[in-house]
Amino acid sequence: MQRREELTRFLKTVRARLSPADVGLRVGERRRTKGMRREEVAALAGISVTWYTWFEQGRDVQLSAQTLDRLSQTLRLSPEEREFLFALAQHRPAPLSPGVDRALTPNVQALLAALSIPALVMTSDWMVIGWNKLTARIFRDYEKMPASERNLFKILMRGAEYQRDEQEYRQLARRLIARFKWDYSRVAGNGTFDAIIAEMEAESPIFREYWSEPVIVSHFEGVHTTNVEGVGPIAFQHSSYAIEQSPGQRLVMFVPVDEESAARLRRVVSMSESGE
Questions:
Q1: Does CATH place domain 2-90 in 1.50.10.10?
Q2: 71-76 contacts: CB < 8 A, separation 24 or more?
Q3: Is the pLDDT of residue 54 over 80?
Q4: For the domain bounded by 106-274, which CATH number is listed?
Q5: Residue 26's pLDDT band (boundaries 50, 70, 90)?
Q6: What integer pLDDT is reported at residue 17 of this predicted model?
Q7: For 100-151, how does the pLDDT look when each residue is reduced to its tens digit (9 = 90+)?
Q8: How far apart are the C-alpha atoms of 14 and 44, rounded to whole Å?
Q9: φ/ψ bin of 172: left (φ > 0), alpha (ψ from -120 to 50), beta (otherwise)
Q10: HEC string of the chain?
C-alpha cells in the first residue's frame, strides 16, 4: 500500500511541474490547477485516460516496460526518476536505455589510473571506453585501435590467439555469447547490438550455434591466462561491477589468481614505472 501511495504522489508531482507548453501543446482556457491534465498525459503516452487514471491512483494496474518508457518520456523524467518509476511500478530496475553513455566521469578516470591491476570500463554493448596503462601493457592498447573497433565481444570472438585450441575457444565463445545475449535482452533498440549480431551471424558458425541456445549468463567473471612478453604467463580472475552514476557502464577488473601470477604482475608494474 505504501508503494502505491508513493507512486501516486510521485506521478502527481511530476505531472504538476509540467505545463502543456513544455510538451508542445497549445494553452487555451485558464486552468484551475498548474501542470498537465491526466487526459493530456495519457494521450501523449498512448494510454487510455481510464487506465492512466487508475495507475496514478495506485490501483493494481500493470503497465508494460514500453508503456512506462513512453510515460517517462512524456513526463520528462530524469534517468534517476525513470529508475524510481520502474522500481515503484514493477518492483525491479528499469531496462537500460537504448542510448549509451560513452563518457567517463572524472572519478572513474581517476580510479582506473590509481588501480595497480589491469582494469577497463565497457558499456552495455561491450564498447571499451576507458582503460589503464596495465591493460594496454598486458592485453591490448585500445588507444591504437579505431574507436569503432574497441568492442570487446568482437575482439574476443575474432582474436586468433583465442582460437588456437578449438575446445577452449568453444568454451570461451559459449560464455561470451551467453553473457552478450543477457546484455542484449536488457537494451532494446541499440544499433550496436544489432550490427554485431548481424556481423557474427554472417561470419561465425559457432556464434550461430550458441546464439540459438537458451543459455544465459547474467554475470561477467572467469579465469584466463595471458602470456606477457618478458614476464611469462599471468593467470587472472576477472569480474565486473556496475558504475552507479553511469547506467550501462561497468568496470572490469583483472586480479591475479595466485602468488606466482601476483609476483609477475608486480614485475610488469615495475617495468612500466621504469619505462622498460
A1: no
A2: 71/41, 71/45, 71/47, 73/45, 74/23, 74/41, 74/44, 74/45, 75/11, 75/14, 75/15, 75/18, 75/41, 76/14, 76/18, 76/22, 76/23
A3: yes
A4: 3.30.450.180
A5: low
A6: 87
A7: 678 899 999 999 999 999 999 999 899 999 999 999 999 999 999 999 999 9
A8: 15
A9: alpha
A10: CHHHHHHHHHHHHHHHCCCHHHHCCCCCCCCCCCCCCHHHHHHHHCCCHHHHHHHHCCCCCCCCHHHHHHHHHHCCCCHHHHHHHHHHHHCCCCCCCCCCCCCCCHHHHHHHHHCCCCEEEEECCCEEEEECHHHHHHCCCHHHCCHHHCEHHHHHHHCHHHCCCHHHHHHHHHHHHHHHHHHHHHCCCCHHHHHHHHHHHHHCHHHHHHHCCCCCCCCCEEEEEEEECCCEEEEEEEEEEECCCCCCEEEEEEEECCHHHHHHHHHHHHHHHHCC
